[in-house]
Input
Amino acid sequence: MMQQQDTAGAQRYSGEERTLMGLEFGTAGAALGGGILLALRPDGAFLHADPSVLRRRTPFRDWRLPGLLLATGCGGGYLTAGMLHLRRHRAARRVSIAAGTALIGLEAWEMAFIEFQPLEAAFVGIGAAVVVLALRLPPETPAPGALGAAGALPAAHSLHRRRRRRGRR
Output
């Protein structure tokens, strides 16, 4: 992905990075919102989700635990990925790949064990897009000046090495 610089010299996000963060924050919002609504009304009334579909092939009797898992696992994972990209953290790429892969797996499980919904297919596509966009990012290259930036680490590491050498002499 190409990084663009504005007139002040600060690096802006590329179109692919903005798309990735949009997918991450949008998915986080949907998962957090849906999960909280399911947890608040485990009978599924807020989302018109019948709990009887759970009882057929899953260990769940109502939507409370699946809702909490959706909000914390998927919502929290995608929110973390988006925040890491926003801060250009070195772990952002790996967290996005993990979040996208986990969403694909979750939706595949839902299709196999609960029932097929077109929205699940859409979320498989979103998970795949997140993985592809994250793989297109350069591995662990945060912007200069960012916390833990690649430009700041070598100098700090060199200073540490120099201090250790002096202590040995």
